[in-house]
Specification:
This protein has 14 helices and 22 strands. It is α/β, with parallel strands linked by helices. The strands form five sheets. Strands 1, 2, 3, 4, 5, 6 and 17 form a seven-stranded mixed beta sheet that branches. It has a five-stranded parallel beta sheet with strand order 8-15-9-10-11. Helix 3 runs antiparallel to helix 4 and helix 3 (48-65) packs parallel to helix 7 (182-193). The termini are far apart.
Length: 467
């Protein structure tokens, strides 16, 4: 058995692990990254990048199919499923290749291949070949799609997860999408626009990540008007019929070629034997940690990225890796790091965005805030482009006038979300934001309308709804 002694051992070479590695190297060269699955982040391999490639193809098909509204005649639109998936795979492999190249350029002594588990608080068993003794350890093992055991038993090999989608050689004829969150919504709509027969099933009445009840209702209406959606499907049952899956909910039955399980992700902690490190775990198998230091309790062990179930987004994983790696390297002289303003985006059409503190959290905290809203149904630039769907809600603190958060479903939400997140992080007041320039005609004029509305609301008497 080979014995390796290091200052910092990092379990996982994804976005968080790579970031932790770079940060720890500032303090010590005795750093080791352990990986047992593949080099190449979740984002590049099966997440944000290949999904956006599929969405881009869907947007091209949708635009061509609806060009007549602009007076542009398109005789026919044919979606070549083989060509669509070929581009998705090739571009995906290109993005993964960049990540693999980065890792393979690290010194060989800084990389170790194998599955790691704790023997004790300072010792890791890696495969059957190596024991790693580390002064500090960073857990950055990521997460995996959550799969309902009953679904797996009923559907067998006809049940897939988003990872499988991006290995398709062509587009299927039909897919049932189980879930109504980020992954489910993006993939269901994209496949629908590419000509795949799709139905999205949600367990509750909630679709997307929006927490504002008014926007939730609007989002459900928008997506139901385009794509077959069945909500409140808590009684959903799967059964096999030859090479098809029968999905039953209530009195509704429909047959599909594939069932895509897209109902969330679970942290990759099962193989780590964390109890051997003396760590207390919650019901999800995740230890308690400080999100500003990455430190688990008061130990020498740190955690970062999707595995901690905090904010499962690439830029957050990268930030958390930097925080955990820095503090593991400088241990015991750890320091708190400032966290960036939360920003989450769903690349549906229309897009969904949450910046800063979400509506539900403001209510939970009992914050005294006002709401300003704008509808995009008649907003100038949006109507010109026939993107006039959705609304933006802004939440500002009474008294200070500071912008606290925003939720949106509508055009260019990915761009407006950045502007709003930057203003929130700066501590801008609504009045200060209204002093910034707004060109004409642009979608950002809708933001100005919402700012004007929330400014008026800040001077009115608060009601039970916050308006």
């Amino acid at each position: 058995m080979k014995i390796v002694d290091v200052d910092v051992a990092i379990i996982g070479a994804g976005s968080a692990g790579m970031s932790a590695y770079r940060a720890a190297l500032v303090h010590t060269k005795q750093v080791l990254v352990i990986e047992d699955a593949h080099y190449g982040t979740t984002c590049a391999r099966v997440g944000c990048m290949p999904s956006k490639l599929l969405i881009a193809a869907a947007e091209a098909a949708h635009s061509a199919q609806h060009a007549e509204a602009f007076g542009v005649q398109v005789e026919s639109v044919k979606v070549d499923g083989v060509a669509v998936m070929k581009r998705v795979r090739e571009e995906r492999d290109r993005f993964v290749g960049f990540v693999e190249e980065t890792v393979m350029n690290w010194p060989g002594a800084h990389r170790l291949w194998g599955s790691a588990c704790f023997i004790d608080a300072h010792t890791l068993q890696v495969g059957e070949h190596t024991q790693v003794r580390a002064k500090q350890i960073v857990i950055a093992t990521g997460s995996s799609p959550r799969i309902n055991a009953e679904w797996r038993e009923a559907a067998g090999d006809r049940l897939i997860v988003n990872d499988d989608v991006f290995s398709w050689q062509t587009l299927p004829k039909s897919v049932a999408v189980l879930g109504a969150g980020v992954i489910a919504l993006e993939l269901a709509q994209a496949l629908h626009r590419l000509g795949v027969r799709v139905r999205l099933y949600g367990r509750s009445q909630r679709i997307s990540s929006l927490t504002d009840p008014v926007l939730q209702e609007l989002a459900l209406s928008i997506f139901q008007n385009e794509c077959p959606v069945t909500m409140n499907a808590s009684d959903l049952q799967l059964s096999r019929s030859g090479d098809e899956i029968v999905v039953t909910t209530g009195t509704q039955q429909e047959r599909f070629q594939w069932v895509l399980a897209a109902s969330g992700r679970t942290p990759n902690t099962q193989k780590l034997a964390l109890m051997n490190a003396g760590l207390r775990l919650d019901e999800h198998g995740v230890p308690s940690f400080n999100r500003y230091t990455g430190q688990i309790e008061d130990s020498h062990i740190f955690i970062a990225g999707d595995v901690n179930r905090d904010l499962e987004i690439l830029h957050e994983a990268t930030d958390e890796g930097k925080i955990a790696g820095d503090n593991a390297g400088r241990f015991p002289n750890i320091r708190e790091h400032r966290r960036r303003t939360p920003l989450a985006i769903i690349f549906s059409d229309p897009q969904v965005m949450i910046a800063g503190t979400e509506h539900a959290e403001l209510i939970r905290q009992g914050v005294d805030f006002a709401v300003g809203a704008v509808s995009f149904s008649n907003q100038g630039r949006s109507r010109v482009m026939l993107k006039n769907k959705g609304a933006l809600h802004l939440y500002a603190e009474r008294g200070s006038g500071r912008l606290l958060g925003a939720e949106m479903i509508g055009p260019s939400a990915e761009h407006l979300g950045h502007l709003l997140a930057w203003s929130i992080q700066r501590g801008d007041t609504v009045s200060q934001m209204l002093d910034y320039p707004f060109y004409h005609p642009v979608i950002e004029e809708g933001l100005r309308t919402a700012l004007q509305a929330v400014k008026r609301a800040l001077t009115t008497v608060k009601t039970d709804t916050g308006l």
